[in-house]
């Protein structure tokens, strides 16, 4: 009989942001598959087996986990943040879709988690307080012309934009280009939040105007949130500024 | 000296999806402000005070909570799901933005939670596995023509769409009209997920094709997720179908 295959999210890295449901899945599993730094967030027992793999080997990792589950083990595939947002749940579904028929009968349990944009938003106010979108800036996943088109359309639509995978050593120019595209559509004063490592000891939150936003303010651990024309900044004397997007949009706005 | 003002999310209603961070905020607060059914999700001590208010009184609730915090109490404003997604964090920021200057010095702590679309996505596979957006269908919050424009643009952009506040007694026709608009842009077979009360005892998940999607399948407790042209359904013999959006988009797609 097949084992159960959990796909969990650890949240952004603050242990207090990992749900009891995810912890229960960890307690129930015998084998763990994931990117090493995400597995490091778990407190495993000596009898639990750890299979760390590189961040780019998602489909192979999913297949290996499914094979173990079919063989009868309870296994746990581990993502940072939420497993359904640019993470392992889609890789596991892809593997099932194109894999042997017995993989379809595995007891798949996806456990949601706090995704980066929600953690960043909470630390800065409420920038996602009205309509918003999440876009991965990785052109490993889709052609760059599609990313450009999406950025233009969502900015024209007036949505706040959360950018995942904004920059890496292999993708150094894409975020700067994204800012250029958005400057054609959005006001110069539109707030841009660089939310790095939200909730972790090395957290760093900075806010810029779109006109001045500098891609070098982001690294691989950063989620970038670009406001809409409605998004506002509240200056505070004794505390960091707040950024929020109002709940209401008046007649006549875009 | 001012007290602390927490704004927390309970998650979608399954106690195992509420974070330790949110529970710690509850333990630290003396007064609680929120919509009654959300306050009902908390286990309060006899010394903790509950101020339930109607779902439509968000700004008044935020002002009352800020007033209590300035007077020195640790208070907790309670949202369902995540407080930053169509919920109380934006209402509290609005109140601070337009309120007396001492409100800016309140120690505001927003605690993220599992928002409905993540919980629904987890129960059905990985429909949010690539770029996606969250749009409130409530035309109490913005003019209907803006909603129509946003739906068209995000569908043209190829984003998966999570609809919050899809339907209510006062807004009976909007979801059907939204489906009509999306049918002009998206393929007839695009999967539509009606995710009701994810993780709660009265959970109900159904999947339709966009061509056949019926607005009466949704109620106020439903988050509706409409796929992109890339979104796929995996039929399973012994289990419910899975819905997922692949991580990769090939050259030549939109």
TrEMBL record, chains A, B:
Listed EC numbers: 2.1.1.131
Assigned keywords, A-Z: Cobalamin biosynthesis, Methyltransferase, Plasmid, S-adenosyl-L-methionine, Transferase
InterPro entries: 4pyrrol_Mease, 4pyrrol_Methylase_sf, 4pyrrole_Mease_sub1, 4pyrrole_Mease_sub2, Cbl_synth_CobJ/CibH_dom, Precorrin_MeTrfase
The organism's place on the tree of life at top rank: Bacteria
UniProt domain Tetrapyrrole methylase: residue ranges: 4-213
Pfam families named in the record: TP_methylase
Pathway in which the depicted protein is active: Cofactor biosynthesis; adenosylcobalamin biosynthesis
SUPFAM superfamilies, sorted: Tetrapyrrole methylase
The species this protein was found in: Rhizobium jaguaris
GO BP annotations, alphabetical order: cobalamin biosynthetic process; methylation
Protein name per Swiss-Prot or TrEMBL: Precorrin-3B C(17)-methyltransferase
CDD domains according to UniProt: Precorrin_3B_C17_MT
GO molecular function: precorrin-3B C17-methyltransferase activity
């Amino acid at each position: 009989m097949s084992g159960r295959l959990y796909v969990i999210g650890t949240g952004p890295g603050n242990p207090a942001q990992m749900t009891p449901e995810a912890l229960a899945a960890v307690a129930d599993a015998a084998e763990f598959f994931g990117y090493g730094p995400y597995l490091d967030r778990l407190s495993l027992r000596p009898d639990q087996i750890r299979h760390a793999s590189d961040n780019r080997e998602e489909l192979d990792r999913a297949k290996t986990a499914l094979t173990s589950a079919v063989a009868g083990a309870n296994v746990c595939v581990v993502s940072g943040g939420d497993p359904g947002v640019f993470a392992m749940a889609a890789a596991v579904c892809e593997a099932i879709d194109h894999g042997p028929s017995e993989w379809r009968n595995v007891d798949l349990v996806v456990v949601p988690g706090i995704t980066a944009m929600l953690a960043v938003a909470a630390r800065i106010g409420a920038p996602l307080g009205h309509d918003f979108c999440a876009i991965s800036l990785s052109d490993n996943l889709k052609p760059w012309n599609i990313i450009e088109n999406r950025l233009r359309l969502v900015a024209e639509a007036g949505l706040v934009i959360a950018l995942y995978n904004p920059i890496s050593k292999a993708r150094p120019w894409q975020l700067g280009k994204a800012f250029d595209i958005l400057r054609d559509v959005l006001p110069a004063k539109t707030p841009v939040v660089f939310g790095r490592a939200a909730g972790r000891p090395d957290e760093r939150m900075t806010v810029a105007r779109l006109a001045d936003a500098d891609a070098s303010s982001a690294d691989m651990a950063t989620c970038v949130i670009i406001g809409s024309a409605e998004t506002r900044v509240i200056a505070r004397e004794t505390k960091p500024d707040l950024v929020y997007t109002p709940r209401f949009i008046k007649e006549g706005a875009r």
